[in-house]
């Protein structure tokens, strides 16, 4: 056990007394027991083995050993006790007759002695205090030396001790590891062998100086040598080592390698010299100024630019070579740099040279700081930009002239557009009206040819105007709220009719993950998709054209949507694909002669795609059809579409058979039905359909409804329906016909066959949903006579609405356009009142309520925008300030959509009026879907 430590405030000393319990031992014990301060706690034993056991179990402050124990000679006992408690001080006890053992006992570790006969208690206590205190000091010193040795051995610098003969007496591990020399080698060789030869004399002088003055010193540029003979730079601190009396006995040193720092300093000096050379040879002026604006340093270029000598510049401040306005500008810039700490990288101002010439200067200015990091002035690089300024002024003037020319061009295009579109509106409109009158076959052909020629001419005019605006950088993309699914449903109408006329299948599908409510430019999106669809139909002699819309990427506020148009047409070679999106290019001259077109559509569509934040591409092989695709980015519009579709019981979980020889159609219809919770089976022909129907009927789980295509090989839809209705097992099946080539009279024939619904492709999902809900709500089909069966569900019956109750006001100054628009409205079942200007429109709306206003933009007396602002003004006498207003104009770009929206208009129709577009806009606004604008 370790001894306890004697302290000044110790009240009790623990003493082990190894002595016989005789009169002499009792006398020592009594003296210890009666000691008042510090008192002693004595443990006595007269046997060596029990004494050793006590030492193993507890710590004592001192041990008193009778050198004549009965069981063993005293000196041998001392040896064993010393081994058992080497850190505890031992005092030997003996009588005067045995004083001769004292020297031997001291040699074996006894630190003090006391006579038990004659006994002197005071002497015993003095000896006891001395040995305990001395042992404590000795232990503390040893611990301190061990701690110091541990620190020195583990420090990251080299430590060494050097005697006055020049030999190292001690080095730490780091020094051995750094140099490769061992401690024995350091001790055996003079120190001068371990430094560079040129350093030896300086080393001797340095140590001599430290010895004489007693002052520690530091040497920062010492070169030492390692075992391999490699020299390296060190930094050394040297001090004297003194004994307890203060006399110098050796040197101590701490050194660290500074090779990298020395190299860095040299590189810094070289860099400074290099920078000085650069500053003196660059054409830009470099200068430093103090807080008063006086230059404290500058290069030669400063004098070249200003014309002043170095002496003149040193005596000047900024107001001496600037006018008052430019000096104030520079001082304010300096003040901002000081306040913010941020540099000014492009401060432009004027100076006046010594010859009186004004020069334009551009400076990059920042704070200059001293070694402590405190700002003490400014530094700057200045460049003479006089010639550049003159060029900028010339460029600005040229730009202004170019912009004026562009404005004139835009105004000319707008005027030409208005002048061309106004008569074109009358031509195409009157052709449309003429088609609604009784005509002979020859007359009908003439009218159709004239209408198509006019429409083709209008298309070319539109493309040229669009391309012209794009090249002039005037084509903008609007950001409007719109419903993607409504937009696609509306735009496929015209391509579907063209596909039907060519005997093609037109298919479209929007993936359920694609959000409906978006913010973007629906008009430009329609234009791009229509261009691809119409091109696909044009170059596809047979087969199908399909449009697929899918979500490509989605973030919290934006979506990127991929639009893909596939066809089974003539295809495009690799060489032709490379120039496909260039203006006035088609795949080859023969295609131009056969299919027509100016070759602008795809070029415009590609540019529009880029404006919508996307890109366009094509994949195709000759004779294998083509796949055109493009992406477009849109903001999410309206509330998040997280509501699940509520499907009525009449549709949900119904078992439906789809019959179609076209796989794409099967995939799309099946996707709709599964989304609505239905179970689907598929048949690619009539025979397979009949087999499946009999199988499920026999199993007691007949189909609730059969959806059939019309045109199929072997058994078409009509024949399939006849067989089903003629079969007693299947005759109660509900039948729905989907056809892409409906002819006049087909619907009546399908009703006679027994079909409950007759829809034309491409069928809108919402229309198919309503159709299924209607026919399934009626119950099972029957083979009854047509006159007793429910009416046939068709596209027209599902989308019919109360048009005759809608009151429309038409504001149009052109008599031809008035007549044309009125005829179109009457054809669609609407009635309208007509006024010739905006003022009359306001008066009419103040006199009677209307449900919708068709407002021409350009009218005499009061234009359409002014009239709209008055209608929206709550203080005007108009009866309904929220009445939907649709803009109508033949201009290409006279008023942008922001102006129409700012005025309060709700929709847009371009002239010449497309009848289907007119009907679409009216129906949308009549159903409360306001806020979508189209472009001309």
Oligomer: single chain
Overall form? elongated
Largest beta-sheet details: 7 strands, mixed
**Roughly how much helix do the residues carry, as a percent range?**
40-55%
Q: Distance between termini?
A: 104 Å
Architecture blueprint of SSEs:
Layout: E1 12-18, H1 23-33, E2 39-45, H2 48-57, E3 62-66, H3 74-84, E4 90-95, H4 102-107, E5 112-117, H5 121-154, E6 158-162, E7 168-171, H6 173-179, H7 183-188, H8 200-213, E8 217-225, E9 231-242, E10 248-257, H9 259-281, E11 285-289, E12 295-298, H10 300-306, H11 310-314, H12 324-340, E13 344-352, E14 358-369, E15 375-384, H13 386-435, H14 441-471, E16 480-483, H15 484-491, H16 493-501, E17 505-510, E18 517-520, H17 522-538, E19 544-554, E20 558-567, H18 574-578, H19 589-595, H20 601-611, E21 616-620, E22 626-636, E23 655-659, H21 663-675, E24 679-683, H22 686-698, E25 705-709, H23 717-726, E26 735-739, H24 746-753, E27 757-760, H25 765-778, E28 793-794, H26 795-799, E29 807-811, H27 815-827, E30 831-835, H28 838-847, E31 852-856, H29 864-872, E32 885-889, H30 897-903, E33 907-910, H31 915-926
Parallel strand pairs: 1-2, 1-3, 3-4, 4-5, 17-19, 23-24, 23-25, 25-26, 26-27, 27-28, 29-30, 29-31, 31-32, 32-33
Antiparallel strand pairs: 6-7, 6-10, 8-9, 9-10, 11-12, 11-15, 13-14, 14-15, 16-18, 18-22, 19-20, 20-22, 21-22
Helix pairs in contact: 2-3, 13-14, 13-27, 14-20, 15-17, 17-20, 28-29, 29-30
